[in-house]
Amino acid sequence: MFRKILIANRGEIAVRILRACREMGIPSVCVFSEVDRTSLHIRLADEAYLIGPAPSRESYLRIDKLIDVARRSGCDAIHPGYGFLAENPALPRACAEAGITFIGPSPETMEMMGSKTAGKQLARRADVPTVPGTDDPIENVEDAQALARVMGYPVLLKAVAGGGGKGMRVVASDESFSPAFRDASSEAFNAFGDSRVFLEKYLDSPRHIEIQILADSHGRVVSLGERECSIQRRHQKVIEEAPSTVVNPDLRRKMGDAAVRLARAGGYVNAGTVEFLVDANLNFYFLEVNTRLQVEHPVTEQVTGLDLVKLQIAIAAGHRLPFAWETITPRGHAMEVRLYAEDPDNNFFPCPGKIIARRIATGPGIRLDEGVYRGWTVPIEYDPLLSKLIAWGNSREETISRLRRALDEYTITGIRTNVSLFRRILGEPEFLRGEIHTKWLDYLLAYAQPPAMEARPGTEAAAAIAAAYWESIQPGNSGGGQISGSEPSRWKLEGRRSQLDRQP
Amino acid sequence: MKFEVYLESPTGKTKHVVDLEKDGASYKVSLDGKPVDADVILAAPNAVSVILDGAVFEIHIARSLDGIYKLQAGPQEFQADVRDPRAWHGRKQGALEAEGRQQIIAPMPGKVIRLLVNVGDEVEVGQGLVVVEAMKMQNEIRSPKKGKVERLQAKEGQAVNAGDVLAWVD
After folding, report:
1. Which domains does chain A have, with CATH numbers?
2. For residue A484, what pLDDT band results from cuts at 50, 70 and 90?
3. Between A and B, how many residue pairs show a Cβ–Cβ distance under 8 A?
4. Which H/E stretch holds residue A270?
5. pLDDT score recorded for residue B157
6. Are A462 and B29 an interchain contact pair (Cβ–Cβ within 8 Å)?
7. Minimum mean pLDDT range among A188-202, A212-226, B3-17, B84-98
8. Ordered strands of the B69-73 beta sheet
9. B99 in contact with A at a CB cutoff of 8 Å?
10. Which residues of A are less than 8 Å from B10 in CB distance?
11. pTM of the model
């Protein structure tokens, strides 16, 4: 096992990795930029080193500084977390040169599987379905139409030089193919001066479902099942869950097998995620591979009972995967929401600032992975993710009611968060029925009115009383300001009184 | 102590008169002239607990930049402007006025990257005035009212803090 691990990240994921190291009895080293001195990962760390100013390209993205800290502090492994350098092959290369183990796949695998085009080629070789279509522009209408018939309608015609929906046509039936082709070509020519178009299978309201895999360095690759990540706002995941409401054991096995084949073909080692689009007929198509730990990994942890970070470390240390199965059956249901410092009433404007007060969510089936605390100022320089609130239960219904309950408990004062967005989604009938797709949330936010909130009777009166009371205990007003239950010291009161007496 | 509380929520604006009279360790509370069965304490920093006729409410309070309180009562949010009628400094500045001259304030620290209007321009409600970049995102600061850009404090390339005045619209 490793002597000491450098955590090349910040925020909640640095805390997550630090905790795994501590549970394994491995000392860890954290790094921080000038604005992160007070961050939670540094408060919890055993050892920490400053690596530069706030901008990440001068700190968290500086491979030379990270390697230098690792050497000086005697680390023999680096965990990259997610984001920053996690998918940059230059980091594992630099690690190899310095004789440090990178906790993740090899740089070659990263290059081959991380790129969309190379990944797609690899998928074809591994017999993993990709979105069907032509790689080259259409030469003549007849051949293209023949191909469209083979693929099955609807299909999508896409301008080679395309963008912004120009030169793009959805073709629903064979009869409309040639007029649509003509329109798309001429539109593409008018818009871009290039009339060439591609043909691709059109996926109507696809779901984003991904498979978590683990691969050890002894050739063993397993699937840990799927995560449903279709709730996205502008291509950013906001809610993830496992299992998916549409994945049955048969589909789970098929998707898991495809992901394992792909990982084998690419010589993948460590934890990775194979992303798929799934259409209404439950056909799945390879999208891309994420060669790292995902933000939403806790969802899989809750339904498998595994600790993915510890397994990543064990795999990097050359250990064998400690289980016998090839595909897992998820136990219960888990769901994660990503709480961000942003204002949902103002177009999700980032709202960093000081966390004045906080009440956290706890209790049965609740997990809070986060890097924040009361009194901390959320810096403006980085991703404004505050906390990942994860709920799990026996069923999807129980999980959702736990998550709702936890969202009511969790309060942050001082900055705005997107918590109201989750309250709304978790009440939408379509979401509750699992009828979701990758554009669902964007449509909801664009076209649907938020339902009127039913206020609890008395809320307004209580708010008025609370506001008046709060005003009365502000400095300068006479009134008690103590937290109830603690009898104030008479010495203190006398001291305060005499101070007040001195005021002119 | 008597307070006038001007509450604003998405459902509308209301005014209440709250009288808090110290009664031993607690208060006698009356609301709009009527005594109510209410127990009010500070339960935790910035968290006021109110038990009103047996119903428990926890209200989280923070002061916003313009001196108005922001209240969260579970999923509900209010803004409150609290005035002491006896205080002769009168009402706080800029309180709850939707009309009149509006200060355009930077909601977050960042950098002004573009000015979308000039002094003297007529602007509509919701029209973008200034683009501020923060956390690698460009954010358009919009006008809260229809009117004329009176002053533009912001300059392109300037770093701003949360609360800095960017412009005035009247």
Report:
1. 5-103 (3.40.50.20), 104-131+205-331 (3.30.470.20), 141-201 (3.30.1490.20), 333-454 (3.30.470.20)
2. very low
3. 176
4. strand A270-278
5. 85
6. no
7. B84-98
8. B34-36, B26-31, B12-23, B2-9, B76-83, B69-73, B55-63, B47-52, B38-44
9. no
10. 453
11. 0.81
Contacts of A472 (CB under 8 A, 6+ apart): A478, A479, B1, B3, B20
Shortest CA gap A93–chain B (Å): 28
Q: With a cut of 60, say whether residue A51 has pLDDT above it.
A: yes
Task: Kindly compute the dihedral angle of the four CA atoms of residues A290, A291, A296, A300, in this order, to the nearest 10 degrees.
Answer: 110
d(CA A375, CA A43) in angstroms, rounded, equals 13
**Structural domain B102-169, CATH architecture:** Beta Barrel (2.40)
Nearest residue of A to residue B54, measured between CA atoms: A458
- Give catalytic status of residue A124 as yes or no: no
Point out the catalytic residue in the list A10, A227, A292, A367: A292
Task: Residue window 145-164, chain B: list those with CB within 8 Å of chain A.
Answer: 162
Tell me, yes or no, if A483 comes closer than 8 A to chain B by beta carbon.
yes
A480 with B48: Cβ contact below 8 A: no
Q: How far is A354 from chain B (nearest CA, A)?
A: 11
Q: Which of B11, B20, B41 sits opposite A484 (nearest CB)?
A: B41
Radius of gyration of chain B from its Cα atoms, rounded to whole angstroms: 20
pLDDT tens-digit profile of A356-409?
Answer: 999 999 999 999 999 999 999 999 999 999 999 999 999 999 999 999 999 999
Residues of chain B with C-beta less than 8 angstroms from the C-beta of A377: none
Tokens of A7: 């955590």
Report strand pairing: A411-413 vs A342-343: unpaired
Tokens of A125: 């070789």
ipTM value greater than 0.85: no
Amino acid at residue number A334: A
Asked if pLDDT for residue A299 goes beyond 50, the answer is yes
Closest chain A residue by Cα to residue B34: A461
Residue B60 touches chain A, beta carbons under 8 Å: yes
Interface membership of A449 toward B (CB under 8 Å): no
Question: Which residues are paired to A286 by β-bridges?
Answer: A130, A276
Contact A466 B29 (CB under 8 A): no
Residues forming CATH 2.40.50.100 domain(s) in chain B: 102-169
Task: For residue A394, give the amino acid letter.
Answer: N
Judge whether A188 and A160 are in contact, CB under 8 Å.
yes
Residue B23 carries which side chain, given as an amino acid letter?
A: D
Angle between helices A63-73 and A90-98 (to 10 degrees): 30
Q: Which residues contact B15 (CB under 8 A, 6 or more apart)?
A: B4, B5, B6, B7
Structure tokens at A100: 């440090």
